[in-house]
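ingest -> validate -> predict -> emit
validate: passed (alphabet ok, no gaps, 225 aa)
predict: started
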Amino acid sequence: MQPVLAFDVYGTLIDTHGVTIELERRLRDAQQAGEFAKRWREKQLEYSFRHGLMGAYVPFSECTREALVFTDRAMQTGLSDHDQDHLMAVYAELPAFPDVVPALDQLRDAGIRCVAFSNGTQEAVTKLLARAGVESHMDAVVSVDDVKRFKPDPAVYAYLRSRLEVRPEHTWLISSNPFDVIGAIHGGLRSAWIRRQADAPFDPWGGEPDMTVADLEIFADRLLK
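emit:
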């Protein structure tokens, strides 16, 4: 049986570096912009985890905005409401990594189902992928918003399996985020870690992904072989 591939979106398909470039224009300091983008992303994920643990679900975009406001306060960067609105708009129009479309074309040509699987709402992710030229290469967009939980809650991976109607051993989660990969392993799925930064460590939780590669084209080549 052919596998079904579920791709994480932010950091896996979509390059968030565009936010850093925009922050450099606003802050006029490349080092500060890089630190801001890093802390914003970390806080975004932390807030999704905390909302999940509290049972106080909100759309992922709200976690993103809350994290933006916090980071601005913590770093005392003095962003105006207009600046914050603009950065949120930029986050909704980020580009795909250059390896994404060639890899998806190769996989689709081989008859393999590919879906996007994200913490973002279906509407937001569909628009983001469409702007990035990726949405037409996907068979579906699956959002955790349907179950009002966030990755790595086991419920979201169970929902993914149910939605795809495929056995766990034939379901792959492909992500650049180790916490997402570990969540998928815990949920009984197969997994691939896209290690986009060569020095990025994997969490020492005992489990390892089925595949670790530097980009999606390498992943597609190895999977098809």
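The mean pLDDT is 96.
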